[in-house]
């Protein structure tokens, strides 16, 4: 395998190790020296990872003003591969504004290098920062690791406060709020810091969302600490009748359940797979061995390779294994009128085929009976499947999600109508996969899957969701069929979840699921 192909394959996620999980790293530092006799540092931690022998920055924390012992709320989320040695480098910077022009400066204070496996095996790793030049400094960095549970739920919070103390005799306070979680070792971890409300003793902070993984590691029973009564120890010592310096109020706390793709599939949602095949004359005469539709006795053509590779994945999520198959761009018997949405089995009342093999057989059987023609119009077939998907909308249940696979050898000729059809379909439980067959110039097709920005209809209406994935088959000629399937199907789970979550439709419980399937024409 060439290095170029291996690199491309890895970027597509074609190769994965036997074990993969995500871990979250929480960071803090102690003993950072002052910038000078008047100023404390404004620290920030940078995470770098090795790539081709070079350190590359991948993320950084927030900057905490005037703090020598920072506890960063920003966390780093990393994939953990047991079989790899994952080198990490943490660099401590002091980021501040200075000079007459107020330009920002970054002062390098030190670094630590370690393996991700070291952090995970110890759960919490503390090391002295190495100063520039490699000498050991007095500053300590602590890195705590926690495996994520896979819970994508978020909690929405809103806080306000009343009657806070003035900063001093002349100035009102600039309040902000911090939320901590209680770790298993009884230490406190900062998970969120609100914005600062300037010059206000009765602040109302902006509503915000925090993932339950960050807030409590997905453990709904883990305690949180919010400082409800604001106590100023100096005032308490001086004032005999001192009670508090203000009250913090939790105005809103709402758990937002984020259901997963498997929640819907295991709840009974069926993937309704439909295929549409290009029968325009540009494919060449099927009887000629140079034709894209030529049926070789031992070697399947590109149409069949793409159909089988993708169809065999999708059929696992459809209980009755009945798949509608359509053609477009041909003159169809018996009157040989041009059609852009005819049933490949020539049964317009029931276009379904039994299994993916049934689709293959119907495709091979129809070729001698068709007159390949044109043009390449795909809007009619998108509208046909969208009509079936629209019936699912009325059920307000997550029972059927539609995937339309379009196999075409050329640039479509009804681009305006296709854009309109896709925009309308983006409101429905539906995804569209387009595979370009042959060696045509497919550059215009990138527009349909958002490669040139958000797709809009000719009226200027944007898609509600990104539902189109386009790939040229030639990119996978030397790869396995699984490579093509993984590439085009990778986005489907997120598209399914996005549709149902946006609609507020929850997955059904498996115990109450009853199989149902219909294809409306």
From TrEMBL:
Sections of the chain in a coiled coil: none
Magnesium recorded as keyword: no
InterPro entries in the record: C2_dom (IPR000008), C2_domain_sf (IPR035892), C2B_Copine (IPR037768), Copine (IPR045052), Copine_C (IPR010734), VWF_A (IPR002035), vWFA_dom_sf (IPR036465)
Gene Ontology cellular component terms for the protein in this record: plasma membrane
Keyword presence, Calcium: yes
GO MF annotation list: calcium-dependent phospholipid binding; metal ion binding
UniProt keyword annotations, A-Z: Calcium, Metal-binding, Repeat
SUPFAM superfamilies membership: C2 domain (Calcium/lipid-binding domain, CaLB), vWA-like
A biological process from GO: cellular response to calcium ion
C2 domain location: 1-129, 135-263
Source superkingdom: Eukaryota
PROSITE patterns, per the entry: C2
Family under the similarity heading: Belongs to the copine family.
Protein name (record): Copine 4
Organism: Takifugu rubripes (Japanese pufferfish)
High-level lineage: Eukaryota, Metazoa, Chordata, Craniata, Vertebrata
